[in-house]
Structure formats: C-alpha cells, structure tokens
Amino acid sequence: HSVGIIGAPFWKGQPKDGVEKGPDLIRSTGLVEKLKGQGCSVRDYGNLKFEHVPDDQPIEKVQRPRSVGHANKQLADAVHMIKKDGHTCVLLGGDHSLAIGSILGHAASQKELCVVWVDAHADINTPTTTLTGNMHGQPVSFLIREFHSKIPVMPGFSWIKPCISAQDIVYIGLRDVDPAEHYILKHLGIKFFSMTDVDRLGIAKVMEETCDHIFSKGKRPIHLSYDIDALDPSVSPATGTPVMGGLTYREGIYITEQICQTGMLSALDVVEVNPKMARAEEEISSTAKTAVDVILGCFGRVREGSHTPDYHMP
Ligand code: ARG
Ligand code: MN
Ligand code: MN
Fold first, then answer.
1. What's the CA gap between 246 and 248, in Å, rounded?
2. In contact, 186 and 178? CB cutoff 8 Å
3. Rounded to whole angstroms, what are the CA distances from 294 to 90, 156, 176, 195?
4. pLDDT average, residue stretch 59-63
C-alpha cells in the first residue's frame, strides 16, 4: 500500500474545542512508523493551515458556515493532489464536517466512488433540518445528488457539487439518528445497518451485505469515512458526541479488515478524536491507539499475524 496522510486540525463544524488536536495525537501514537512496519510506503503531507474567517455569522441556525466551506475547499484540493500522486489518502480530523472536502476531493480524481460511513450518527441533516446548527451533523446532505435541490445556498459553499447517489453510500453503527435524518434515509432508500442490525446479523453478515450493496454495479473505489464515535465509548471515550451501545473494538477492526480485503480502499477519514473530552490521560491514549488500529486494519494488518515471503526460520 502507498499511503498519503493529510492532517486537518479543524473544529468549527461543532462547538467543542480539542478535536483540532486529533491529527497530531494520532501521529504521536506512532502511526507512520507502524504503517511502515507493516510494509506500507508512507508520505505525510503534514497539517493543513486554516485561516481565520472574519464575521462568520450564523446563517439561520447553521454555525460558522464560511469557515466550514473554506476549510473544506482547502481539504478537497489537498485530497485531490494526494490522489493524483497515486496514494490511498488518509485524512486525520478534525470534526466530521471535513468529510465534505475529503469526499469531494476524492471524487475529483476518481469517478464512480462509493462511501462506507461508520458512525453512531447519520450526519445527513440539511442546513434546514439541523437541530444543533453544527455542520458535523450535515456533511452527507451536501454530497448526495438526489438531495441537491433541498440544500439552501450558503456562503462558502458555492464550489460544492454533489458527487454520489443515494445508493452509493452504506452506513454502519447508527444509534443516534434525528427524526428528519431518519425520514431522509427512508425517503431516499439509503442502505444502513444500525446497531440493532449489527446485533441481529452479526458484523460478518453486515460486511458481506455492505460489499454486495456497494459493488452491485461492479467494483468501485471505496471512501471509508470512520467516525471514532461509531465505536463504544468504552473503546473510544475521547470524542465529542459519545453514544452508549456502540461497536466493540473487534467489530470496529473487522470492518477495516474486510474493507482492506476488497482491495478497493481509495480514501479513509478518521475523525472526531478529541483528547479534551477525556476524563483521564488513559482515555486519551486508548482512543488514539484505537484510531491507529483502525488505520492499520485498513492497510493490511491481520490479527492472525503475517510474515513476508522471504522469511526464514532462525
Ligand atoms: N445529529 C446531531 C447533529 O446533527 C449529532 C451529530 C454528531 N455528528 C458527529 N459527526 N459526531 O448535530
Ligand atoms: Mn458520530
Ligand atoms: Mn460523524
């Protein structure tokens, strides 16, 4: 695997401070060294620098729209470049509003991509349905073609053109979905596996059905958008909107192993790691370690262990 890493220390898609520390925390947990240790070639493109956007007044309920729009444009350009350089792109967030830029930048280099969205939340509110005004609860609404007419024009967002169809996204891990979001999921016929579905089917069947769904029209590049709050708070406590009853560590890693197995992973987001939400130092390190393990699973780490073809018994 050839991996290109981009950090986006961005928090303005939600109100809690600390999520901008995610990229450096994940790096300091040994991400690059561990990827190289499992045979990946790695280029770290560093962190994006986001300029302050003055007078970023709310539009109706939506908080800091111009900042979110501009940051995502920067990110989209960076992801596009990393894809042109031939890497699988890894975005270290930052909050989940960054999926707008990550997926649009990815789509600019790769037509016909599909999205696997692993999250406790559906993040498909529109600027009109949002209850919180936070943009990290809305990114998917900007990306879906069938929905374009429902999205109001907002400053900072004029560059955005939706790039996926409703049948090109699958959710895994849902357990905190707003009424309007549930309506949208049902209305557009979007495929999702809530935690109830994970309980009923088991994670193996969920991944089988996920791959059947995204590859129904043939194999396509995958964008995996992994919100760390998909995992149970006992596994990843350091996050801004934790919800009980999440994926176990094993289920969370199994998802990455299966995505890796498809050979079609083309971009990955790991978002919403927030060290300031931890109640103890240990919660910071365990969440960061989990985030790193998610990434390693996406790039070939297998739990049975492995050895190179030139291995010789000592
Ligand atoms: N549904 C809520 C909202 O729209 C929560 C979203 C949480 N999103 C996240 N990326 N953690 O505000
Ligand atoms: Mn979430
Ligand atoms: Mn999310």
1. 6
2. no
3. 11, 32, 22, 19
4. 97
Instruction: Look up residue 285 and give its two tokens.
Output: 């390190």
In percent, the amount of the chain with pLDDT more than 90 equals: 99
Reported ipTM: the value is 0.98
CA angle, corner 10, sides to 6 and 15, nearest 5?
155
Give the amino acid at 297.
Answer: G
Give the per-residue pLDDT at 47. Answer: 98
Ligand 1 atom with the shortest distance to the CA of 176: 1
Count, residues in the chain: 314
Single out the catalytic residue among 119, 168, 176, 232.
119
Known catalytic membership, residue 227: yes
- Report cis status (omega within 30 of 0) of the bond before 94: yes
Phi and psi at 188, nearest 5°, equal -90, -5
Tokens of 307: 């050895």
**Per-residue pLDDT averaged across 104-111, rounded?**
96
Q: Model confidence over 184-220: pLDDT tens digits? A: 999 999 999 999 999 999 999 999 999 999 999 999 9
Write phi, then psi, for 109 (nearest 5 degrees).
Answer: -105, -15
223: helix, coil or strand?
strand
